[in-house]
From TrEMBL:
Keywords: Elongation factor, Protein biosynthesis. It comes from Lynx pardinus (Iberian lynx). Residues 13-78 form the Translation elongation factor EFTu-like domain. Gene3D superfamilies: Translation factors. This is Elongation factor 1-alpha 1. The keyword Nuclease does not apply. Pfam families: GTP_EFTU_D2. GO terms for molecular function: GTP binding; translation elongation factor activity. The lineage of its organism: Eukaryota, Metazoa, Chordata, Craniata, Vertebrata. The keyword Protein biosynthesis applies.
């Protein structure tokens, strides 16, 4: 999953809201948030206020997680399966960037 928004819902707890990019998200799955390395279990998954047995790529969902505060994870964290290629912080990467319609000049810094 990409970069979740994090909500605190009274009577429910911490609910990251995000879109499933790859794999499957379902209750009982153990997930890790990166780069903060927080691991927890998914309690429930909902889409449009309806419980799902599983969410698949393309689904925008909210998922309730166990024993996690909204302060433990942030918008921009990546969520993934803890047991199968968990997400982790990259030491570095190379990117090709295309800037379109930028007013003014682009400079270092």
């Amino acid at each position: 999953m990409g970069r979740p928004d994090i909500c605190k819902i009274g009577g429910v707890g911490t609910v990251p809201v995000d879109r499933v990019e790859t794999g499957v998200l379902k209750p009982g799955k153990v997930v890790t948030f990166a780069p903060v390395s927080v691991t927890t279990e998914v309690k429930s998954v909902e889409m449009h206020h309806e419980a799902l047995s599983e969410a698949v790529p393309g689904d925008s969902v909210g998922f309730n997680v166990k024993n996690i505060s909204v302060k433990d994870v942030r918008c921009g964290n990546v969520t993934g399966d803890s047991k199968n290629d968990p997400p982790m912080e990259a030491a570095g990467f190379v990117a090709q960037v295309i800037i379109r319609n930028r007013p003014g000049q682009v400079s270092a810094g």
